Records
---
Amino acid sequence: MTGGARVGDDRVTIPFDGRRIDIEIAWVRPEHAHRTDRPLVVFLHEGLGSVSMWRDYPRMLCEAGDLRGLVLSRYGYGRSTPRPHDEKWGADFMHRQAREALPALFDALEIGPGRRHGKPWLLGHSDGGSIALIHAASFPDAVAGLIVLAPHIVVEDISVRSIAETRRAYLETDLRTRLARYHDDVDSAFWGWNDIWLDPAFRQWDLRPLLPAIACPVLAVQGEDDAYGTMAQIEGIHRYAPRASLLKLARCGHSPHRDQPARLTEAAVDFITTHT
């Protein structure tokens, strides 16, 4: 444990941006946490996600593959430290999560090469998938593999349109009330994500130059009915990341783990087993 980090039963205090923040965590199948011979999967949530919004999927996957799992809520989400309402995130917000916050958390929990829990697998959804890609490109020797669900590598028009519609729903429907069940400060979670995605400056955001640096195997998954991105996202990963494989799912929207959990689990377990 380094950098003044502190670990509790469901919180880890880490240094970030010149201060100390709390990160909500939950171990999946904690009774098996000591089995360091089994792969560890770290679940990275979507732009409005949290520990609780994964529901039962982490356990479903870990039981199917006899895996260990760790779920976390990023800064600003779930039961983690909320983002102050006057703090505006920049276009590098996912890079900062991948290069600063996630390494600090892994240091605190002894995750990584030569440490207690070894190299992790990262399973990221949407923004969490993008963060997984950035982390693996930035620390190519530190990750065993990636499974990215509906990740973003560029900003598409379809993404901006759907995120603008989500903003309308947050202001005019019961979406805010429904999301409030999953976040200590729902406005912190929503506006941190929504404001930057709809900022015109964010249209230049592009992960493609980073992808060739990813050394680990990557399974990139996209639903054919995704309202937040097209197949160009995972096809770009396949083009630029050296060891990428694709899974395209019919009858599936932006959340493969909700829309096609059995098919995704089968593919993910097979991919992890093959590359372990």
Note: Strands lie at 6-7, 11-16, 19-28, 40-44, 68-73, 121-125, 145-149, 218-223, 244-249.
---
Amino acid sequence: MDNSGLLFQLATKGILVALLAFLIVWSSKDRNKYRKLVWVTLFLTFDVIMFGAFTRLTDSGLGCPDWPGCYGHSNPLQAMEHIRAAEAAMPDGPVTVMKAWIEMIHRYLAMGIGVLIIAIVVISWRFWLRSGRTQSQFSPRFPVALFLFVCLQGAFGAWTVTMKLQPIIVTIHLLLGMTLLAMLTWVAARQSDHPVVDRTALRLRVPACIALILLAMQIALGGWVSTNYAALACMDFPLCHGTLVPQMDFQHGFTLWRSLGKTADGDYLPFEALTAIHWTHRVFAFVVAVWIAWVAWRALRIQGLQRIGRALLGALVLQITIGIATVSLKWPLALAVAHNGCAALLVLLTVMLNYKVRIPGRLDEN
């Protein structure tokens, strides 16, 4: 199939995914359909992040080793001959029927998000122009930024496949997905009603921003653990190989530009390098947890932030519990996916907190 026909068929599948979301928005009792569309897109993005984690953790990232289609076709059914041949040659390899479907479903869902974001851009422009460019909540700046960002995310999705799961590319792909979720959360917050927030919330602006930065760094470390398959490099907890500071190879572990499982020189990555990756993620998690817990505790003491503070604290406790259980239970798939999902939830809640602590200042300015 030629590229234009393939892209058309893939776009059709993305539109079908988006149509389901549009149906939810249209049938909603919420009178503000634009706000509902933003929230539904946010929810779908959260789901795609979790499904992306499932794709990565089931080693399905190369289930279809080309892009954007699957052996030049728009779905695995049409490529079954090629998939069966690859599976017969390597039964435990990256290409199987199940892995091909997982990979392509992930692509269909991602395309659906792209269609929804295009709809958000069009509607925001329409509402903004109709309001005489006076209603800032409909400003197209954020939606246009979302569109540009989802295009960038799609490019890294393609490079993830064409560059054969190179760890730095896969990690950036994960970070861009989390950033897209954060941006959608900010847009959704602009469309939503918020309780009155006490002016003391202004004191949390800097701490909340630091919490988001630390969380982003920890997610990057977590992505580096996952993309290097270092989740089981330390099989015990709280120690690692029975000691507080095990033997580690930071030089090879944190060389960013290299192939999967290899050093920059092309040799196999030593186990000490995987230990260094895992240990760093684990230790930095303590720093992030303490800071976010402190920020959430302060939010609990401020009028209008109690609810978000409780949610953030609860998500943090859940994430720590899942992280420990993932190691203790030897990395069960469901818990590993949930660990990624809870990280996305922390991003959502931390971004929402950052928005809320700016409400008093915005109200005074208007």
Note: The two ends are 56 Å apart (CA to CA).
---
Amino acid sequence: MKVLAAMSGGVDSAVAAARAHEAGHDVTGVHLALSRNPASYRSGARGCCTIEDSNDARRAADVIGIPFYVWDLSERFHADVVEDFMDEYAAGRTPNPCLRCNEKIKFAAVLDRALALGFDAVATGHYAILREGADGLVEMHRSVDAGKDQSYVLGVLDQHQLRHSLFPLGDTPKAQVREEAARRGLLVADKPDSHDICFVADGDNAGWLREKLGERAPNHGGVIVDDETGEELGRHDGTYGYTIGQRKGLRIGTPAPDGKPRFVLDIEPVEGTVRVGPRERLAVHGLEGIRPRWCGTVPASDTWGDCTVQLRAHGDEHRARLRVHDGGESVSVELLDPAYGIAPGQAVVVYDGSRVVGSATIASTDRSPVGSAS
């Protein structure tokens, strides 16, 4: 099989490429240049697409003995990921750019180009497992390493994309991947994992958004108020600097009457208001999801079914009930155990056991206890 290995410059993608090559596939490595201004790439290991990473990927490809290229997808990345990130925060929502990058770049733009060039599949270093189901469809399951499982950020992939994907690391714990990299002579064996958002140079999301959005954001300045009393507690430079569930950096000097910390409960970007209150008021019991992406067969509409859901990339799994509307166009989710700090714009990924059913973008949350649905 002719395989394009997406090589980020980290240990995972390097070992994934090596395994694909060792399995007898005709492998070509490619690194994605995602910044329109290479001079802005940070050094170190905070991100996953720096100049330093490109050089590490090239050296790994040389050790493996495969051809290597760099593809410039900076314009597409800026339009589909960076602009989306800014627009979502300006609207008071909390996006996940890694999920959007998988959907729009790595398994859309890259896969489309790979197939057009005659490749059969794209291999990445993601931690997830693919297997054929009883119905002949490709199923995606959680990886064996629960701490590194990345099925959440892959929950946007549809059946076409899964059929042309390879995840060689899903059955291996991360510690063993590093040991294997060292045995193979890959210099990235001890390279730290990437963290933060790759296009935010110093990890300061609020500062980056303030610089990029500026006057473009509605009511770039506003007030922070107590959600129960309506009392003004402070002012802010822009609602884009806050997310629901946030505790630190609120810049409010007045302590709560009970002395407990306050959390962001709601963001109103048009009015420029950030509402804060106690943690217990963050409890979410249900949510509505839009723009679903189904990994396989769409669940039956208008009936409630048991499932589990994950609401953050490294969050807990929650027992839930799912109801699909209009043949898969939107979803309702009841949480049997409340989740905290869940914000519109985040993704809900639905599981049946270890199998990923699909995902949706959270449009709204319900903080009233479950009990009315049937």
Note: The helical segments are 11-22, 51-64, 74-90, 97-116, 159-163, 174-183, 205-213.
